[in-house]
Every structure is written in C-alpha cells, then in structure tokens.
TrEMBL record:
Residues 437-513 form the AMP-binding enzyme C-terminal domain. This is Enterobactin synthase subunit E. SUPFAM superfamilies: Acetyl-CoA synthetase-like (SSF56801). InterPro entries: AMP-bd_C (IPR025110), AMP-bd_C_sf (IPR045851), AMP-binding_CS (IPR020845), AMP-dep_synth/lig_dom (IPR000873), ATP-dep_AMP-bd_enzyme (IPR050237). It comes from Gordonia jacobaea. It comes from the Bacteria. Pfam families: AMP-binding, AMP-binding_C. Residues 38-387 form the AMP-dependent synthetase/ligase domain.
Amino acid sequence: MLVSPWPPELEAKYRADGLWVGETFDDVLRSRADDPASADHTAVVDIHRRLTYVELNDRVSRIAAGFVELGIAPDDRVLVQIPNRVCYVEAVFALFRLRAIPVFTLPAHRAGELVGIARAAGATAIISPREDAGFDYRGLADTIAAQVDSVTRWIDADDLDALLAQPLEHDRANPAELAFLQLSGGSTGIPKLIPRTHDDYLYSVRRSNELCGVTADTVYLATLPVAHNFPMSSPGILGAMCAGGTIALTASPAPSVAWEMVAREGVTMTGLVPPLARLWTETAEAGTSFDLSSLDVIQVGGARCPDELARRIGPALGVRLQQVFGMAEGLVCYTRLDDPIDVITTTQGRPMSADDQVRLVDEDGVDVGAGPGFLETQGPYTIRSYWLDASPSSFATDGWYRTGDVVELTAEGNIVVRGRGGDRVNRGGEKVSAEQLEEQLLTHPAVRDAIVVAVADPYLGERTCAYLIADDADNPPNLAGIRRFVRENGLAEWKLPDIVKIIDEFPETGVGKVSRKKLREILAG
Ligand code: AMP
Ligand code: DBH
C-alpha cells in the first residue's frame, strides 16, 4: 500500500545517503535469526515466557500461516490491542511476515476510540487477549465488530498456539510502502492514523540506536504500553531487535514489578514518562533492596520533565538520563549521552538526524528564529500527511508537519518545550483531545456547553478540567456523574476529567470566541 510520498528529490537523497536502506521489519527478524551471533540470544522475555531469535522467528512463520488460514491477507489492517507480553511481539511480527498492516492501539483504549479507529483503518480483524487485569477485551472486540462492518474476525492473543500451522513462503513487502498505522495523541475527536513505511521507521530506529548506544548487550525494558511510539522505536523494542539485544516486557511500570525484571534480566535501558520517573526516583531515594546496578540509561519523554526532577533521576537510580521529545508522526529529539549535565537536565535535546529540518513560526506562519514559537518539521522519518489525508491543516503547504508544540531553541540548538496551543491536555504523557472530550460532554443531558482546558499539576504536569454550563442551574452535574457518563460513552480512563467546574458563562475573547486562555488564568488564580 502506497503512502503519500516524500518529494522525489528528498526521497532520492535519503536513499543515496544511505538513510533509507530498503529493509523491511520482517527482514530484521529473519536476519537476527540467521545471524549466528544473535540466533540463540534471548530475543524477548516476560514474566512467564522467553524466546530466542530462532524460536521467535520460527513461531512467527507458523503463526503467520495460521493467520492466513483464518483469512488474514496481505494489506489487511488488523487492530492489535495486546498488553506488554511476548505474544505482542509474536502477533505483530506474524502480521509483518504475511504483509498485513498492524494498527497499534493501546490496552486502555475503549469503544469510544476503537470504533473510529477501526472504521478509519478499514480494519478486518482484531487481535487481543480474552481478558487482562480484570477487563473483558473479547467483549470489547465484539462491540467493535458489531459497529464496524469491515471487522469480521477476533483472534485470541493468548492462544496463538492454537493457530500454529506449517510455515508458508510469503512475498517480501516493499520497504517503501506502508508497514503499519500508529495513532496520534490527537488534538481532535477524529482519530488520526499515522502511516509509517519500513524505510522511514527503520531509519529512525537505527539512528536512535547509534545515539543511545544500543548493542547486542542491551536489555531494553518496556514498561510503558509497548504499542506507543516511544517504547516501540526510540529506540525501544525495535531498537533492541535491530541490534540483536533483548526485549524485556512488564505488565506494570510499578517499581515492585519492573525492578524485579530489571534485576532478573539485567535490564540496561528503559523509557519512562515524567510521573513514573518521579515515582522511580522517590522510591529509590527512600531506599530499595532491588539490584538496579545493570541499569545504565533511563530515558524520560512523552511530556515535559521538570528540571528539578531531571536533576534527581541520575543520582537516585545510578543511571545516565536522556530526555526524549518525540511524536508518532516522526521527529524525535534526544539529549546526547555525553551532553553537559545542564543540557541533559534543562532541555529536551535536538533532532536525531542531520536531515531533520525544524523551524519556529508564529500564529501567522512567520519565522520567529529561536522562538518561542510553534515547531514545524520535515525530514526522513516525518510523515507528509495522515492516513487518508485526515486533518490536512496539520501540514503546511510545503509539506512540513505542524507539531502544535510551542518550543524555544537554546544557543546550542537544543529544544526547550514550553507548551502547546489549548487543544490538548498532556496528562503525564497521555494526551487528551479537548475537542473530543467536549463533544462527549455536550451529549450529557444536564450540560448546555463545555470547554476543556489543562491545569498545572505537580505530579502529572497537567490535569484535565471541564468547565460546564449546566442546563438547569439548580441541578448541575457533578464530577462523579460526569466521569461515569464519559466512561460509559466508551472513552479511555485517562480521558475522564479530573476536575469539573460549573460556571454561568464562558469568558470571551475580543472577537466573541471563547477564551481558553482566560479560563486557564481563572484556574491558575
Ligand atoms: P503523540 O501525538 O502521542 O505522539 O504525542 C507527541 C506529543 O507529545 C508531542 O507533540 C509533544 O506535545 C508531547 N511530548 C513528547 N515528548 C515530550 C517531552 N519530552 N517534553 C514535552 N512534550 C513532549
Ligand atoms: O510522546 C510521544 O509520542 C513520544 C515521546 C518520546 C514519542 O512518540 C517518541 C519518543 O518517539
């Protein structure tokens, strides 16, 4: 499946310069299994299972054959909703092997998100466990299938053994074409699917490996939901696989669970969002009996890491800190491991590739130099459009991606993230679309009008506040009722408002537009 292309002269340059090397995800796994240096090395491990590269490669062939017997065909889009377990890697690479297209959803997504995603993707199947952490994923998949005509199959991720069939020969994918669909954190209620090619994504993974010092000795721990772009590719589990290292997976990022895995497998590297980095840091500062001595690098990203926390992480956990500012649409910035400590603790680093281009502009698109300004970017692994050209206004006319982030550049060219426009709340790395939540709130019978804004929070960075005008001022809705309503409407738990405020009218800007800025000022006051 073709992806809206990069301009021909850029594509030619990326190939000529050896950035895009014409390798597929399936090639990566095959070459690890074929290489005597990695063949018998642990490829992936969780609390219950462990597979070497040869074993993983063999199972992937047989699971792919089983998928084909079920009717999964090349180019089919398949929703993957699997927690951090070995079967995640098996299922995703089996889809790659038969040239189907995984759509990476998170375990926390609910019908409110998945119906739109499945429709937009034209998905034909869903792979998820029957049940996990007390939640009925099978039931959720049935709900999606009932509402989306194209979805005709559910596959039990916990019983891939039942599918094992005789390996088939499969055609090789075209590395320049669509490999999978990633999800955007989203500033609108309409799901924006992110089409990534083998060429562009594998370039970002290999370049990340160089910068982060990933080798065959790396044991990368995914504690964040592994379908997210950060633990997937920066350098994440795919980085570990490209280098012939080990992928370790834990179902929970809690120190008591994750640190057990760190000690057992000799984990060297992991990625955390700021609230988790704080929890790990404070737990370590209080003293721990877990052996964390193998840990070398902890990456923090997904949301702005406070400088005060950044300074404590390294000393508390005995690690080198790396800040990561990235997006599933492409651009990823890193502080370098050998940067001065001030750069590492006060900036979000700089683009990983010499071919990444960034510019800062004002509301009218006029260049503002070192800013602060809205960050726009193009480069060898940043998309030029969303799937099916959704949200064309996210791209400038010359194809640059408008990130929506407000940033500044330091004299040395490092990025400091200052915030975003008012369209999105970043709740400790989990993004809430103000528009999507407002749409839901407006359907509540007791709500006349709704505005969602971010408020500062010492732990999460931001929390979600819903300003509501009640239909009946004497009978206003309350927080518990609003949260229950949004949950029952099928939105992920992290999108429920943290605060509900009832007001009589919204403050307006000079031109009669509701002012989120004024609402934020009221909240701060
Ligand atoms: P997503 O659309 O889910 O891929 O989220 C990408 C967005 O997360 C970026 O555009 C930023 O708004 C935010 N983000 C990611 N990493 C950082 C970071 N280190 N500091 C501040 N914001 C971040
Ligand atoms: O938040 C993100 O989306 C993100 C953070 C760090 C990301 O996509 C990435 C690194 O690749």
